[in-house]
Amino acid sequence: MTVRILVTHDGVGWRIASPGRDLDAGNRPRPYSQREEAISDALFAARMLRALGEPASVYVENGDGLRLVAEEDVHVWRRH
């Protein structure tokens, strides 16, 4: 079964979630202010899951619903 990672906007900021995972509202991480940062981190998580043998895909919320994000679609480079 493929792990679906969703990047959605909740009115406050961009969040990364996975359907079917019950997250405690009190312990939710601070939302991302930039959509690109949230997508970059979600793609990183998907690569790590794939490295562990778990199929994973990333979807981003758009005005017309959810769209699958391919690694080639987004080239976000961040300085660490």
Provide structural commentary.
Helices cover 21% and strands 29% of the residues. It is built from one helix and four strands. It has one helix at residues 35-51; strands at residues 3-9, 14-17, 56-62, 65-69. It has a four-stranded mixed sheet with strand order 2-1-3-4. Strand 1 and strand 2 (14-17) form a beta hairpin. The longest helix has 17 residues, at 35-51. The chain is globular. The protein starts with a strand and ends in an 11-residue tail after the last strand. The model has no long low-confidence stretch (mean pLDDT 82).
What's this model, at a glance?
With 80 residues, the protein is α+β, with helices and mostly antiparallel strands.
- What structural class is derived from the secondary structure elements? alpha+beta
Strands of the widest sheet, in order across it, are 2-1-3-4
Radius of gyration: 13 Å
Given the structure, what is the number of helices?
1
Broad shape: globular
Order of helices and strands: EEHEE
Most strands sheet: 4 strands, mixed
Q: Taking all residues together, what is the mean pLDDT?
A: 82
Number of strands: 4
Beta-strand content bin: 25-35%
Which residues form runs of ≥5 with pLDDT under 50? none
What is the CA-CA span between the terminal residues? 33 Å
| DSSP helix fraction | 10-25%
Draw up the topology in text:
Elements: E1 3-9, E2 14-17, H1 35-51, E3 56-62, E4 65-69
Parallel strand pairs: 1-3
Antiparallel strand pairs: 1-2, 3-4
Task: State the main characteristics.
alpha+beta, 80 residues
